[in-house]
Structure formats: C-alpha cells, structure tokens
Amino acid sequence: MIRITDASKIRTITIDRPESRNALTSENLDGLAEAVEHTNKPVIYLHGEGTAFCAGADLDAVAELNRESAEAFAERGQRTANAIERGDSVVVAGIDGFARGGGVELALACDLRVATPEATFAEPGVQLGIFGAWGGTARLPEIVGLGEALDLALSGRVVDATEARRMGLISRITDDPRTVAEEIAENAPDALRVVKARVRDRSSVGVQAAREAETFGELVAEHAEDIAAQRE
User: Fold this and answer.
1) What pLDDT is stored for residue 202 in this prediction?
2) What are the residue boundaries of the structural domains of the chain, listed by start?
3) pLDDT class for 189, splitting at 50, 70, 90?
4) Average per-residue pLDDT in the chain?
C-alpha cells in the first residue's frame, strides 16, 4: 500500500509493503502517482517501510503479464516516474537499505536522492532476461554518465552508498535522510518550484535562459522585502 502523512510543508509518502521489500504492483504505482500529483506541499519525502526503499516491480505480478499487459505495466511505471519528475513539489528520496530495479528508477526521477550508509543499489533486470522500463534507460546515463550507466545496467552488480555517491547516483549520505527534506522545506515554496522547473528544463540554452530571466524577475518582485532585509 501507499501511505500518506501530511505536515505543514512536507508530504511523506511511504511505500508500505515490507513483506515484499516494497515491490510495486500496478495498483501501487497508480497510488504513488496520485499521492505525488494531488498535493500542494512544496516538498515530498518518499521512502520505504522496513529495511528496503523499493525492490522495483513485484515479480509475482510480472510473471502473470503477457506482451500487451507488460507494455501497459511499463507505461504505468513511466507515468509514476514522470509525475515525480514533473510535479511542482521537490521530491526527496530517502533510501535506507535495499533499492533495486524499478526502485532505483523511481529514485532517479526524484530531485534529490539521499541514502543511509546501509543503502545498496542495483539494476538486476538483465539477470532475469529483462530490464528496467520505468524511464531508467534515459535517466540513469543522464545522472551518472554513459559509462557508469552501462556498467550498472549490463552487469546487474550491487553498489553500496559510498560508490553510489562517487558516481553521482545519490546526492548525500546521512543517517537520517528525512533531515534533508526538512532542510529543503525551510526555503521559500515558490522559489523551490521555480528552481526545480528551471534546472529540469530541457529546452535549448537560449529558451531556457529567457525563461530563467523571466522567472527570476517574478521572484525578485515577490520577495523584494526579504531581499532588502538581508542588506540591513
């Protein structure tokens, strides 16, 4: 199940299937997408219950798929990852323990990936004759580079938090990833929304620069008093 807890500035989304290492079915993917899309909180903290972040797709469910339903399942995962990436809220993945396959792909869609020292990561799909199809083949090389992405995806090997940090797969290592979400939430919500949109903007450099200038002007006008106070 997907469990939601709202505080003043943070929506906490918990993948709560510890008996399956928080593996996801179609229903879970839909619930996660809805939890991300239907909130006005500036920050979302996404984590897993128990000793895993997310094991990816529920293999019991995958085993029952045919070609058409497998394609639909992949599209469901992509919709969920896109909701995380494209939404207004800054999404912080708190990764404690096991992250595999689709779990890594969901984390890749988040704005920040923060892990505990116990976190481990792998894309083991090739060992089963499949691969991650929730947008990971696009996001992984964008985040860690082509060479590291091919190494992870073709080998299926497990990397620990230290190596994941070295290659840029995660942003930070800390005993309590939620503190990073709380740190981010202390900033101005409108600035968080705009910075996320601009950094993730894949338009041409010229178009992006124009949008940066426009939104910078909007924020300066909105926060003129705060800016002035900093000069005193």
Assistant:
1) 76
2) 2-184, 201-230
3) very high
4) 89
Whole-number Å distance between alpha carbons of 181 and 141: 25
- Residue 57 main-chain phi, psi, to 5 deg: -70, 140
What DSSP string runs through 152-197?
HHHH---EEHHHHHHHTS-SEE-S-THHHHHHHHTS-HHHHHHHHH
pLDDT tens-digit map of 207-221: 666 665 676 667 666
155-164, 205-214, 220-229: least confidently modelled range: 205-214
Q: Which CATH architecture has domain 2-184?
A: Alpha-Beta Complex (3.90)
Q: Which residue has the tokens 């290492």?
A: 21
24 near 1, Cβ under 8 Å?
Answer: no
What are φ and ψ of residue 217, in 5° steps? -60, -40
Q: What whole-number distance in Å separates Cα of residue 164 and Cα of residue 120?
A: 8
